[in-house]
Structure of Photosynthetic complex assembly protein:
Amino acid sequence: MRGLANAIRDGSFRFSPDSDRPIPKPILVGAGVLALFSIAVIAGGRLTGIGLAEAPASAMVAHRDLRLVEHPDTSAVILDAKTGQTLVSAGPGKGPFTIEALRNLDRYRGREGVSKALPFVLALKADGRLVVSDPQTHQEVDLRAFGARQAEAFAKLMPTMGTASAAGAAKMTGEAAQ
């Protein structure tokens, strides 16, 4: 290791090729073939759908429309879009996962230049997935990706709609349905 450090310091070791020692052609050809092969495989996957990971379409069992309201002092609230009921609130400089998740979707709306008028949709799917979707940008976030604790924070925002909702939320968060 000391020999390598000395070679780098005195300039006898070079990180890049020079005119005296060019990169061998077989290595360049191999790198080019690998790059073209990668592009072809990706294009083939996108065209045929083979190898793409997508969640299967599933019917919505229950949903709640959510509206994110941000204030100039950086506090924010999540409201039920239909009733105006405050579901989650956070003071200035604070942001629980529920608010931060909607802020990210809201930022994406801003980047895409679409209206922020429509609410976000928190939906419980028939297969037990809890998702937040944005009807404006067609983004859908499967809350399982963030762990049971974070999914549970959103599950608490679901309206109580009988045993189907309770069973789905329990399956989602890993708890036993009661």
Summary: Confidence is low (pLDDT under 50) at residues 162-168. Residues 60-173 form one domain. The longest helix spans residues 25-48. The chain has two domains: 2-48, 60-173.
